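Running log. JK asked me to keep both predictions on one page so they can be read side by side. First protein, sequence followed by its tokens:
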Amino acid sequence: MRNCLVAQSGGPTVAINASLAGVIQGAIDSKEFYKVYGSINGVQGLLNSRLMDLTHKVETTPMFIELLKKSPSMYLGSCRYQLPDYKEDDTPYAYIFKKFDEYEIDAFFYIGGNDSMDTVDKLSKYALAIGSDIKIIGIPKTIDNDLCVTDHTPGYGSAAKYIASTLLEIGHDTSIYPINSVTIVEIMGRDAGWLTGAAALARNTYNDAPHLIYLPEVAFNKDEFIEDVKAAMDKYNNVVVAVSEGIKDADGNYISATNAVEDTFGHSQLSGTGKCLEYIIKENIQVKVRSVEINILQRSAAHMSSITDIGEAFRLGRHAVKCAIEGKTGIMVTSIRKNNEPYSIDMGETPVENVAGLVKHVPREWINERGNNVTQEFIDYAYPLILGEPVVKYQRGIPDYLDISHLFPNKFDN
């Protein structure tokens, strides 16, 4: 028997550790691997020789797998490292595959979002070019839910649950005074509005908030926005607006991006959309207005996670191991929805090149004609993903998660 290696990359989610747990458990149960190694801080852990023995963790830490499934963020840490084209510079590739040989790695699992699938694609093509039989497999995660082919991504359901719960509570908060007010809630989503659309799940028999929803898939029109808010104020004392950080005007310019910077993958780092809309209302409508930015809060809110999300993330991790044992490589494992009622999915896979560098948008027909709300089709799609609540262990009144001190400077011990 040889070994396998797993790493995490990109932004944290509530469910990404459940996928990690699925890989570990699947590898151990398969009896096809002697050890499961984890790379600290993504592919950079390989480049910096920071690997840990996860099999040993399972053997020495009581309930390690169960604790890992319910701990948020990324137990192995993350990175934002972009591999160059190996045809132009194969130096990091040669070093990574040298480490694969050193640790006798047969399969490498990379859990992450779009940029991580780019890494899986590049490593897979390099392996093919040099004749390596190491299996390279991507496991999806992202709260943005913008990976193509798969029905949805682990992390989205829990983040959507957090957003919906928060919007419901904002609806309660803003309703107590008999005066007019507008509350703008800015929600993550640079290119796709899946997370912002989930705000609609806050609505119930007595709560209509959010009253307006704006996604990046529809061009934002300032004049129509002012009209929308005024119309909502005729019906409600307190208007709540959910808006994606990545909304753009008809020319494709980000509403908030007057001073946007880019990350290592060339993505605009956005903020201030809510504040921008706040100023628009202040200048055009005489009403009390405030803006709230829900930035990173939903990414690691395990106290409000979805058991559906956690369970599916774990299943995808196990399915990735199964695919590797079957000899598959250069793929991303996927969720395939079978039914909404009763909700069910199958596990599948797709060539990772069908995912890397692409974005899955909210279908235009799932957004109303005016572009200020989502339709029932969106709600029917998202609702099953937020269901169920895992039992979270508490200690001294706050959640008790796995120790991650190995991620702190000078604390790593392999």
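And the second, directly underneath as requested:
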Amino acid sequence: MTATAENMRAAWLEARLDLLQREKAAARLRDELTAARMALPRLPVDKDYRFMTAAGERGLEELFDRRSQLIVYHFMLGPGWQAGCPGCSFLADHLDGTLAHLNHHDVTVTAVSRAPLPEIEAYRRRMGWQFPWASSHGSDFNYDFHVSFTEAQRQGRVFYNFTWMEGSEVGEENPGVSCFERDPDGRVFHTYSSYARGPESLITTYMILDLAPKGRNEAEIMDWMRRHDEYEVLPAAAGHR
């Protein structure tokens, strides 16, 4: 190894060790955030929300599917939409592979959208997904959890991502995730919600891209991304079969 190569290697190792310390600090901070999230007060959910599912009409408690924890992804698919939000579809591509693990760890994950169930099921068939997906059509659920806003609401100020903002800054449907806990007596509690880029950690593709030499390589968030059935078919890379 030449002196120049040795110097480059030493410089790389020094920079990598510095980054390792920052990575460890970030991991410790993530653990602290998780503990703080778990320590948030539990808010009782008293309203009788009704949903339509492939198995029939269900209440919120029944969406737990006999487990004690429920994570709801607020999937942006409004009534009459021809397709779901591309970003939500990108996230949803990562859910099916987690279900066996989560379900056996007392966690149910379901998507909820305001579109009627037949429209949800049509889009599910197109995308080939298996995760549970319920319709909140005709319910206050999306509005109460601040992911859907009427046209009238958007003419004034709305409460989204725990902040009051101009209605013009949000869409009719908006992304988010909400978490719930069911106690042994069947009472349901809201434990956590996150909006905007909050659910981004569910997108494993982004976590992998963050390791890649060019990172996410996007001028604007998700500007390169398409629904998985909308990409052009690429020829096999040379030397790879």
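Observation for JK regarding the second prediction: Helices lie at 3-38, 60-63, 86-92, 99-103, 117-127, 141-144, 204-209.
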